[in-house]
């Protein structure tokens, strides 16, 4: 399996190299040179498989011969062993042909665990074999950071630096990061928003001259292909549970950085019968504006009740553009250059092609609260604000009531108690037992200005010796 850059200039790499590289040397993102396709007979044979076995069957196609099959099978199985539901990703019914896929039973109560429990173990395996030490650098709008720390904290070959926007994540999200103590764990609160954090990470990957000798950067954000690969699996899992491949299924996806829904797009291209993919955004709606009105202008970021989606620069959208422009790296490079000026315009014929599969809807805080309350009243099911946005968008955009609509429930409601109370619930949702002491633990983090030199000096000063 070879991977190529969306901007066409970087060398092709194998899976292991892509996992350790993150951003391509030309500034693009890596995607498979040829996407594997699964026929209906093989998909049918997967019906009823436990989650980890299904995951292995799908991921092995992307890993190729970089990791022996038995080792990969062991890694994948271990990645989902500690999820707190035996189904790993259970489906819950809200209404007629309306479902939520619960992706919050991992150790940090968010869908990011599906990818980052795996990525941490893959890195541990590869780095130990190569006798190599790296620096994990990531930006988080709330959930990636804790999942990355949980997935990587036990690895002796990694120093972890996670940037989050200061005072713009929930208290639970922050504490899930800042109460995990270790000499190799560094939480950095940046005086800016998530897009600022993400821009600092991307700039650091583009020029790594500041790093201590013998070190390189590894990405844990969804620019890392291994993240996307892991997220493809639960689309297959949900579809096969609801009658696939003989039956089409639609998905509504709470979307900020476009990685999760891009995984659904890839599942469709691999042969999974997906009828519709719905881009569900909050008030920071650049993806909805782009799809509905070809407006990719960057507005001022607005803090919302769904902070994990408070994103205006959706990195993975570049991967979709690469396909829409027939994998023309030069064309994509030009588009991304124009996006930096806020003037990116997609050719209408390309946008029409995207609209054949994708729909979109923007949900403000008021509608988010209304949806939480409505779902709780009608079926006694409590949604977190991000999942509520997905449910609302699915209800507004679905084309066909005969086709099952699955909303990805991306986080546990206890991570966003203020939003739940604002929606009219009488009390805050309770954290699961294994996190009951979260607010009594000591926090450790550093507040830094939005300044590259300061960030790089901090990394230099806090990287462990080789």
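Sequence proposed for the structure above (466 residues):
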């Amino acid at each position: 399996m070879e991977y190529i850059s969306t901007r066409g200039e970087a060398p092709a790499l194998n899976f292991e190299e892509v996992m350790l590289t993150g951003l391509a040397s030309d500034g693009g993102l890596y995607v498979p040179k040829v996407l594997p396709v699964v026929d209906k007979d093989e998909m049918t044979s997967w019906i009823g498989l436990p989650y980890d076995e299904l995951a292995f069957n799908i991921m092995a196609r992307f890993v190729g011969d970089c990791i022996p099959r038995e080792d990969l099978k062991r890694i994948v199985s271990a990645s989902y062993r500690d999820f707190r539901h035996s189904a790993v990703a259970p489906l819950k019914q809200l209404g007629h042909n309306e479902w939520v896929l619960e992706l919050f039973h991992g150790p940090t109560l968010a869908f990011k665990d599906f990818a980052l429990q795996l990525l941490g173990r893959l890195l541990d395996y590869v780095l130990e074999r190569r006798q190599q030490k790296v620096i994990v650098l990531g930006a988080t709008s709330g959930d990636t950071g804790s999942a990355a720390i949980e997935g990587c904290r036990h690895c002796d070959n990694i120093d972890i630096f996670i940037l989050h926007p200061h005072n713009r994540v929930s208290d639970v999200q922050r504490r899930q990061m800042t109460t995990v103590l270790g000499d190799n764990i560094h939480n950095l609160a940046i005086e800016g928003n998530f897009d600022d954090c993400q821009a600092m990470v991307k700039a650091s990957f583009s020029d790594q001259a500041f790093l201590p000798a013998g070190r390189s950067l590894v990405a844990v954000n969804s620019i890392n292909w291994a993240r996307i690969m892991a997220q493809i699996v639960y689309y297959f899992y949900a579809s096969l549970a609801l009658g696939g491949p003989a039956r089409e299924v639609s998905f509504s996806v709470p979307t900020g950085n476009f990685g999760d829904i891009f995984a659904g797009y890839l599942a469709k291209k691999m042969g999974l019968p997906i009828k519709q993919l719905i881009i569900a955004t909050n008030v920071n709606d650049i993806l909805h504006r782009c799809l509905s009105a070809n407006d990719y202008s960057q507005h001022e970021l607005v803090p919302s009740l769904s902070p994990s989606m408070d994103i205006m620069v959706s990195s993975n959208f570049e991967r979709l553009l690469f396909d829409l422009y027939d994998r023309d790296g030069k064309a994509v490079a030009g588009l991304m250059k124009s996006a930096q000026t806020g003037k990116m315009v997609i050719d209408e014929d390309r946008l029409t092609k995207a609209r054949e599969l994708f729909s979109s809807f923007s949900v403000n805080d008021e509608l988010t609260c209304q949806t939480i309350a409505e779902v709780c009243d009608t079926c006694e099911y409590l949604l977190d604000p991000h999942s509520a946005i997905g449910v609302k968008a699915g209800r507004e955009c679905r084309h066909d009531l005969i086709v099952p609509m699955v909303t990805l429930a991306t986080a546990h409601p206890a991570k966003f108690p203020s939003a739940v109370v604002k929606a009219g619930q009488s009390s805050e949702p309770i954290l699961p037992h294994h996190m009951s002491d979260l607010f009594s633990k000591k926090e450790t983090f550093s507040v830094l200005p939005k300044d590259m030199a300061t960030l790089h000096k901090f990394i230099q000063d806090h990287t462990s010796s080789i």
